[in-house]
Amino acid sequence: MASTDIASSSGMKPIEEMETVVVRFCGDSGDGMQLAGTQFTNVSAAFGNDVSTLPDFPAEIRAPAGSLSGVSGFQISFSSKDIFTPGDEVDTLVAMNPAALKTNLADLKRGGTLIVNEDAFDKSNLSKAGYEGNPLDDEEALAGYRLFKVPMSRLTKDALAELDISQREAMRCKNFFALGLVYWLYNRDSRPTEEWVNKKFAKLPVIAEANIRALKGGRNYGDSTEAFTVHYSVPKAELPPGKYRKITGNEALAMGLATIAKLSNKTLLYSGYPITPASDILHELSKLKNFSVKTFQAEDEIAAMSAAVGAAFGGELSVTASSGPGICLKGEAMGLGVITELPMVIIDVQRGGPSTGLPTKTEQSDLLLAMFGRNGESPLPIIAPATPADCFAMAQEAMRIAVEHMTPVILLSDGYIANGAEPWRIPPIGDLKPIRFDHPAGVEDGETFQPYSRDENLVRPWVVPGTPGLEHRIGGLEKSNITGNVSYDADNHHNMTLLRAKKVKMIANRLPDQDVHGPKSGDLIVVSWGGTFGSVRTAVNQAIADGKSVAHAHIRYLNPFPNNLGDILSQYEQVLVPELNMGQLRLLLRNEFLVDAKGLNKIKGKPFLVSEISEKIDAMLAG
Amino acid sequence: MSTVELPQLTAKDFASDQEIRWCPRCGDYSILAQMKKVLPELGIAKEKIAFVSGIGCSSRFPYYMNTYGFHSIHGRAPAIATGLRLARPELMIWVITGDGDALSIGGNHLMHAIRRNVDLKIVLFNNRIYGLTKGQYSPTSPIGQKTKSTPYGSIDWPLSPLSVAIGSEATFVARSVDVDIQHLGMVLERAAQHKGTAFIEVYQDCNVFNSGAHDYASKKGEKEENVIYLEDGQPLVFGKDRDKGLILDENSHPKVVNLADGYSESDLVVHDESVSDPSLAFTLSRLRYPEFPEPMGIFRAVERPIYDQEVTAQVERTIADRGEGDLDALFNSGDTWTVE
Fold first, then answer.
1. Which ipTM value was assigned to this complex?
2. Does residue A485 share a domain with residue A537?
């Protein structure tokens, strides 16, 4: 297969080696920036770099073309070392139109590379972006950057001139021209992308050819034009040995759920209602029917939750997922799961709120909803993955806790983890553990089955309906302990309330101890949860490297907390809790451990920059 | 094929040990008695039967049946039962609900369970009042009804449960009355035999908050003139002396005629429960006392693919086409790379 390989194109210009590079593609929603970013990620990951990504797109499927609100971006950091974030500052910004330039330029590093499609800077687009003149002509404003004005529309059209395609189809290939150019700039092998294009457009060979020509056109432009004098390489990262693939948080959740069901020889019943940013879990699982996965797209969030309760009563592995607004609707049926003590997993992929809020942006503001968002005393365990790849393990962990402790479990993901991607070390199947089931088979003659009898962990039996002799009735009314019969007795309700709380609390006895990164005691510990892991870990590592007495505890088990967490917090002079909310974990920590935790709180729909956390660490250390 | 001898069960076998807590003379007792009588005749082991209910007086029903049972939350029984059915397709599942539970707070779930044709037997106890919350009007209360929440009379136009069901693409729709025990038993049995969603409205008397609401259709001496008993393939005749019938006029509007006025039975509408077009069933569901006699019996019984069977079939087809899921292959799909 004829293709432009690295060897043939890299001989002409010098290559400089870099450790970590951050690239952002941005353009109109219809410009294919998410696709370009994803392809760049795949190619970099497959090459062996560590990668971390941040897709950022508008809630509107098609905002008005060329408008500021319609700008879609995809940022990727790729590195020869272990990285935890998609990067604070952008090294190379590709802007496909004036609106993209306007909304993204502030994130470009001084001295960074700015590649623009100058053909898109026409009067109409400039006016839609609110520019009075053409910013590309304003040498002073762009003096701090290495600006490359590339006539991408025209060059793409020229590259495709011989093909029998419409002007419109040709213009849709310009993202591949931009991608090809950035591939050249960072010395990437474009063959995986060419293979992907051929597969994707197998039935439309002319479109496949057009995209590949555009890709090569971009690469050749970089190689041949005098504007670009140097290009760069980022060597492979030193990751732990093993086989890797790229994975997003939502993909990892779906895969983790299918895995635990398959290993445990159970049907997985997933019920959901479409909602951003959780829908991809439904999409992924609906492809996996041959893993005995049944997916049910319910009529609404309430039905999705109710069906999950019904499937749990039916004795199968039951999951539902949503985001904040949907979780609110599920609250009542979740309470039914609590009082009937049935196992199920509820995934909340958090987004900006309140109400519809910021559907496509990330936030961590549902922790207290998960803790307290049901009527009555209604405790349930809450866990939160730290990274996209961690979702694989945590999905299994959520189901394991649910089944072994007969309780609904909430897994809190967020938009950043859900859509972000990173390398995932593929686990050997032998390392994965099934859930063991202990469904009662019957009772001795003359005995009555007691659905609310309990073992030493206060866990009641899980009966599969259809089992002879174990017919029983459960429901939302308060239960008499042991018999499970309806009870309005005052003391029984008091005792059952305490019992349900204790049952959840006792789960801490089986959890791994909270680990601490950094010194075991000292001036400051930074405590985080969920998707802020990467920014916090990077900032703490920098502080440690600078000789500061700073540690990091990232909590994956939020209710109950690990047993040793209180002791850990007491070993440091100060506690900092950075969160993408108004201080929800901080409130829980202060309540549980009477610790004077300080917050760093940002509610902008965006992840923390490492620098924001570093500055706060320094300010607290300075007193 | 091996056959399993089922013990001969009786109504007693289906009674749970729980004290029944409906008001004395509530219509629910009669429906419970008929259910216990019908189930042993189906030849299904009692552990293979589950009752799911929502909230309301009728929804206490599962506690009184010695089968698997789930007394859930207001309006959600069809959704919970759908989840149970997808997990355990081998069970026979009954949903017990009321006019408020099914048509008000749970309207959406009812509509979608019916349109999917999930294999559920849904029995709606229609007493046209909220009993458990002590007497507010319901979505089936007639205009003008005075209740605790409508002291000056209800101004809410009522729903016909059967029209809702037919509009939701129901495959089986029927109506009966709590005290008409033979008819009710027949309807329950037909519902049990139906494959797919069976929807039954039962006129049920709330003798505390809405006493006698259905007397016109249940009392001897009144019902004969006010009810048409539907029989498949038979003309729609009613009246104590079977002297009246129903025709469709030149505009296809239903009209009551007197057979003494020159009409013969051959002029009357002939009931056809299995016709695929739901227009006749819908027309019958619109007939309201006192303008018309109200039909009782099976309005509609047709076949259509059953949701839960299709879900299972799709899983089986995918396994046949692509092989049993292989985790190793799944993990290694897409671009992979190896770090030495």
1. 0.97
2. no
